[in-house]
Amino acid sequence: MKKFSSFAMVFAVSVVASTRTYSQSSLPPVRQLGPVTAVAKDSLSAVAGIRALPNGRLLVNDIRSRRVLLLDSTLSVVTVVADTTSATANAYGVRPGGLIPFRGDSTLFVDPASLSMLLIDANGKIVRVMSAPRAQDIGFLIGGPFGAPGFDPSGKLVYRAPPNFQAFARAPGGSGAPLGPPAIPESAAIVRFDLASRKVDTVTFFRTPKIVMNVSRSPDGNMRVMSQFNPLPQGDDWALLPDGTIALVRTRDYHVDFLSPDGKLTSAPKVPYPWERLTDSGKVAFIDSARVAIEKQRASGQFGFGPGGGGGGVQVTVGGPAGGPGGATRAGGADGANRTVTTVGAPAPGQLPPLQMIPATDLPDYRPAFLPGATRVDTDGNLWIRTTQNVDGRPVYNVLNRKGELVDRVQLPANRVLVGFGEGGAVYLAVLEGRNVVLERARVR
Question: What are residue 266's DSSP bridge partners?
């Protein structure tokens, strides 16, 4: 159920976030988004990403139904670009994919299952198949919580690379049974990939949330490692601007560092923000509220279990039967044992992995200004950052200009999620209606 791997985090946090209203003269007033100008007639399963084209046309990645659609300016479906049926010659694949704007009005569709990228022209036709970058990077090219990949003006693909961590801490010399849980780094690299030379260069690093792992051993000797769920993860965010500059949004003091294509780093001043302190009792109440909200969504089947989701993390079984259900076999270390890795993102039907929350004492003393994956870029190069501040039960977006200055604060209508921008100040919204989603187009003002 990849349907709401990003939606689930957004709405779960919205449920438990503070609805306290701040009034500070140093901040721009919170305003409402402009009027809705078009509503799609056909509902979708989920909208993981869009690609705005000239004349109001739109490519839509319906990630749960595994199809890519071309819509006209009225948001009516023109054609099915890729899907999982025999009706089209181009299969979407068995895993969720992603859309990346390419040269001109063309678009790349990333197919993780085949490790390829399909080139879609402006008319919605697949005209070429290209090989993707390194196989281990493919899951980080579909967007979502890992940031939106894109091409810089030199034609290089910029994206976040996967973490490089040791699967298990082992005894000296590399022999014997694993001693502890995976050592997961608290930083990630942003890289540039040259399509012609197939060369990957590391551009910079940024801070990622700390992941806490619990280790348990079953009676038959297998070891299980489960990650704890953190409803307030602290990590930097990033976005690629139209001129190839990388914006690094820092979580510690909420400011933006701009890294230009020539490697020059410019730091913007701190963004004014109404920080909210979390008391010890407030931390306990927040964890309890988050648990209730998340369990409710898990029970309804609306909570995604993809990478970075809140389904309890990743369960790794060591020493069990190789190639078991839902698992993948990897050759073992010096002890010769095979490793069966089971992701709890694919539990057996009717089963849910246990939800493990971090202790309340591990929450920060101040609510983070934003959560990882909260930043989007409009067509003018402004940063739209979904903050954790709620007013009247709805989150506030901070809009920062190219200098990192706060120039606007915007709220969306209820039950809406920002999915992208288009020409002429268009904003595209996904409207949650039960288990389906309806696409809307509105104006910035």
Answer: 258
Which residues does 265 contact at the CB level (< 8 Å), separation at least 6? 257, 258, 259
- What's the pTM value of the predicted model, to 2 decimals? 0.81
Which among 410, 419, 364 has a CA at the least distance from the CA of 391?
410
H-helix or E-strand containing 12? helix 7-16
Give the separation between CA 177 and CA 81, rounded to whole angstroms.
49
Tens digit of each residue's pLDDT (9 = 90 or more) over 304-363: 433 333 333 333 333 333 223 222 222 233 333 333 333 333 344 445 667 889 999 999
Structure tokens at 292: 């209730």
pLDDT in tens, 398-437: 999 999 999 999 999 999 999 999 999 999 999 988 788 9
Number of helices (H) and strands (E), helices first, in the chain?
Answer: 2, 30
Q: What angle do the packed helices 7-16 and 280-300 form, to 10 degrees?
A: 140
> Under a CB-based contact definition with an 8 Å cutoff, are residues 189 and 160 in contact?
yes
Residue 119: exposure state from Cβ atoms within 10 A (0-12, 13-18, ≥19): middle
